[in-house]
């Protein structure tokens, strides 16, 4: 049967199980939007292509399925570059379809032409420029295969207009061989010798630590991880990308390590004699100054991406594997009688001496941002999904919310993309309509992508947004206060401009505001009653609040700065 | 003339710590850009690079890259290269265990007074005259990088020399297997 390339593209997306596309049409992608009308696939019409990309990421992170975005050529394509870079840094499976000018016009500076495969070469796992309608099924199947296997990541498929308008005889690649990817080997067998060597290191360790990264979530390793941790009695830390992989309420969980990590988690890394890194990549936000990081520790490094081994930190044993398979293999050979009594005694002491804390709010306001997050969490149903932008609010949301299950914490970790929160929340809600989705946002972040609330209202996606409005680019302000002699340069925004309540209402959302603790409780209860349209709450928070603990940039983790109220004890 | 000594590293043109990566890639549009772009964005230095189709069907190409192994650990360079979907195979050829060759072409002006000196240089280097003009000759040398270096240095003493080198290709030495 002869069909058009555009029909083949939609049919291919249906074939790989796509149920939702986030996108915005334009000239070069026009042919593809026609057969979309007849497809079972839901299309969410965004207001800006960046929104489409972050929504697809939120969808992917909430469901574990690849997110799909579709945009036109030129500016449509460049507008989605930031989400692609974001997905690349956080290893999120994402497939982006871009329209391209007709093949004959490529290289002529045609209207809305840009070399998007060239632009995204360094921020995609792979990309394709499809040159004939016949190749569309292969390109789509390969894109999904690459995006979702091994270390996941974004894949871009660029489709020139003459290709989508051309015709082909429908076919579908039935096997991996049909994908024609001779250089792609995403997985390999675990080497038994590595497992034996790792077991040996574990047997010798007195102060082992399970250092859990995002790879644990990608490989759905939570159950195996809890079992292994309980069997061995080892303490656990979960990185910003792994929050939810191990229940926060679990007594062996020390919390998040890193620049704004828990004191006990950061200090445990420093004092450990064996770091068991599971799907973690020794990011600079975790290690602090590298030459002072975990100086006593040997390292077992488990990663699906072999290029992570010895990139930052020497691995005494490296195991190329997904986290879950590696834990299963380790579990089978590790027979250590759990003890670590001295180690746990130290850990308990650190935890008791430096718990997470903040100053009590005054009853007449302003609000403490940490208290706002805790109040939302207290009123939230179990399994609520939290998304965040980037900055102070993100760190507080990572610290003050108890994540109990995978997929409940969605944020921009590696790239640090401001404005991620709102569209990611929309994508997450589309993927998990059964869950409540809260976006904990900052006022700076909110202003970057808030227009997608129009999308949310139009498409019936009732998310909840809590703006921690301190009228500042808060994290930059914190650095200027602490490290630039309180010389505040270009960080003041304004609590009232824009008027967030009116803005929310203009976008068809419910808009609420709270300035005191009493109002805070009231608006949260009110927001929880709204389930048909998005809700935005403007929480007026104290601009002087800083995120603690903090490991200053360039310092080692030993120089962690705790909350002022705890400094006498250190 | 005795076979030149195996090239082991230090010459005026080579980084002291170099390695040769023989990279088999899919012969598709943009693959060379992917490889070169990877080196650029990760801060790996390329000393020389040669690329040509690798088999009859032109499905694959072979890129021979001489890398500066001091700019980044070789393991990291190979690891990142291996992640490129179009990279099919990477062979790491240690200089001592590989046979390296490259091609040098040079057009050298000759006059009655310099002709003999140029001919001497050609003979000594085991090079060949491949083109002869009224006032210049073109010399070709296919040899080790060190021999090419030597000839290049020798030709520096002549004025207005146009000299091109291909960058090296390499294969493992049979004796080391």
Structure description:
The complex is a heterodimer of chains A (570) and B (177). Chain A has 570 residues and is an alpha/beta fold. Chain A folds into three domains: 2-179, Rossmann fold; 192-353, TPP-binding domain (Rossmann fold, 3-Layer(aba) Sandwich), CATH 3.40.50.1220; 369-540, Rossmann fold, CATH 3.40.50.970. Helix content of chain A is 37%, strand content 16%. Chain A contains 23 helices and 20 strands. In chain A, the strands form four sheets. In chain A, strands 3-2-4-5-7-6 form a six-stranded parallel sheet, sandwiched between helices. In chain A, β15 (385-388), α17 and β16 form a beta-alpha-beta unit. The longest helix of chain A has 15 residues, at 49-63. The radius of gyration of chain A is 24 Å and the shape is globular. The relative contact order of chain A is 0.11. The mean pLDDT of chain A is 97. Chain B is an alpha+beta fold and 177 residues long. Chain B folds into two domains: 18-93, 2-Layer Sandwich (Alpha-Beta Plaits); 99-176, ACT-like. Chain A, domain 2 (Alpha-Beta Plaits, 2-Layer Sandwich), CATH 3.30.70. In chain B, the strands form two sheets. In chain B, strands 5, 6, 7, 8 and 9 form a five-stranded antiparallel sheet that branches. Chain B has a four-stranded antiparallel sheet with strand order 2-3-1-4, with helices on one face. Residues 1-12 of chain B have low confidence and may be disordered. At the A-B interface, loops of A face α1, α2 and β4 of B.
List the helices and strands and how they pair.
The complex is a heterodimer of chains A (570) and B (177).
Chain A: E1 2-4, H1 5-15, E2 20-24, H2 30-36, E3 42-45, H3 49-63, E4 67-71, H4 75-78, H5 81-89, E5 94-100, H6 116-119, E6 126-129, H7 136-148, E7 154-160, H8 161-165, E8 167-169, H9 192-204, E9 208-212, H10 215-218, H11 222-232, E10 236-238, E11 253-255, H12 263-271, E12 274-278, H13 284-287, E13 298-303, E14 317-320, H14 323-333, H15 341-353, H16 369-379, E15 385-388, H17 392-400, E16 409-410, H18 421-431, E17 437-442, H19 443-449, H20 452-459, E18 464-469, H21 474-483, H22 500-506, E19 510-514, H23 517-529, E20 535-540
Parallel strand pairs in A: 2-3, 2-4, 4-5, 5-7, 6-7, 9-10, 9-12, 10-11, 12-13, 13-14, 15-16, 15-17, 17-18, 18-20, 19-20
Antiparallel strand pairs in A: 1-8
Helix pairs in contact in A: 1-2, 1-7, 3-5, 3-18, 9-14, 11-14, 12-15, 16-17, 16-23
Chain B: E1 18-26, H1 31-42, E2 46-53, E3 60-68, H2 74-82, E4 87-93, E5 98-109, H3 115-124, E6 128-132, E7 136-143, H4 145-155, E8 162-165, E9 169-172
